[in-house]
């Protein structure tokens, strides 16, 4: 199977099952079992349980595919690779806030061809396959177009290390007076889907990892958005910017002189 639409169907089935499990098993206050980059960058037991479930379903259907997951790294190799974030927005999950998601993307020969982001608390499952558009509940998605920077609602996110946060606060202080407003949802995958759905006009963040933006990035671009980094570079953990053509360039040109890829 190499049809992007069929990959998206399988990814959606798995993401829905994982989301239902997380809702069913989530206690009133999940316990932190580990921290990652800093004491505020947390992992819960259900992050691992969800990734185990997703991996088992992928292996059952596609035993020879590679899998890259946030919690367990890379297993296998091959032309097809699954990119898995079992809970994007773990702090929101921990506190019972609604912006967390199960994110699954599928690469073929290094290109993302299928994507699903299940924003579980909202009961919204965003899907996309390469060349076939982005969808939510049977409705094709289109990002907002023709919005000038001064009227744009921009999403962003913050890292977990103090030095990075200090710079991000400095950048935000320059951005905020020049846009309509700024939102911080807490899930990069969900934020990129919000750009696709026209709930945000644009998004930028330093720090998201590949599993955070692989699925949401395809959903956004299939909805007509542009995604990239600074100075013509591809989007990466150094910087990810996403918006409709025109606004993308304006947002890029606002950010670039601020040197937002640095840490204090």
Key terms:
metal-binding, D-Maltodextrin-Binding Protein, domain 2, 264 residues, Fructose-1,6-Bisphosphatase, Chain A, domain 1, Inositol_monophosphatase_CS, single chain, 2 domains, eight-stranded mixed sheet, alpha+beta, hydrolase
Which helices and strands, and how do they pair?
Blueprint: H1 4-25, E1 32-35, E2 42-44, H2 45-61, E3 66-69, E4 73-75, E5 80-88, H3 90-95, E6 101-108, E7 111-119, E8 124-129, E9 134-136, E10 139-140, E11 153-156, H4 162-175, E12 181-183, H5 188-197, E13 202-205, H6 210-222, E14 226-228, E15 240-243, H7 247-255
Helix pairs in contact: 1-2, 5-6
Protein name: Inositol-1-monophosphatase
Binding site for Mg(2+): 70, 85, 87-88, 212
Function: Catalyzes the dephosphorylation of histidinol-phosphate to histidinol, the direct precursor of histidine.
């Amino acid at each position: 199977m190499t049809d992007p639409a069929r990959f998206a169907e399988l990814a959606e089935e798995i993401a829905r099952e994982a989301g239902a499990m997380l809702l069913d098993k989530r206690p009133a206050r999940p316990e932190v079992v580990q921290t990652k980059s800093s004491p505020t960058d947390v992992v819960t037991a259900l992050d691992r349980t969800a990734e185990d479930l997703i991996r088992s379903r992928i292996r059952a259907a596609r035993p020879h595919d590679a899998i890259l997951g946030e919690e367990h790294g890379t297993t296998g190799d091959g032309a097809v690779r699954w990119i898995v974030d079992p809970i994007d927005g773990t702090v929101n999950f921990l506190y019972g806030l609604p912006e967390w998601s199960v994110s699954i993307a599928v690469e073929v020969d290094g290109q993302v061809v299928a994507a699903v982001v299940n924003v579980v608390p909202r009961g919204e499952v965003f899907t996309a396959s390469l060349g076939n558009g982005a969808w939510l509940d049977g409705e094709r998605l289109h990002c907002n177009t023709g919005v000038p920077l001064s009227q744009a609602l921009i999403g962003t996110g913050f890292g977990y290390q103090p030095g990075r946060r200090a710079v991000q606060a400095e950048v935000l202080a320059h951005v905020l007076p020049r846009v309509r407003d700024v939102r911080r949802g807490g899930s990069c995958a969900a934020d990129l889907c919000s750009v696709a759905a026209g709930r945000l006009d644009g998004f930028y963040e330093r720090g998201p990892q590949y599993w955070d933006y692989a699925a949401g990035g395809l959903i956004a671009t299939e909805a007509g958005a542009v995604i990239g980094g600074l100075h013509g570079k591809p989007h990466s953990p150094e910087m990810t910017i996403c918006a409709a053509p025109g606004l993308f360039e304006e947002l890029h040109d606002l950010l670039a002189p601020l040197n937002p890829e640095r840490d204090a």
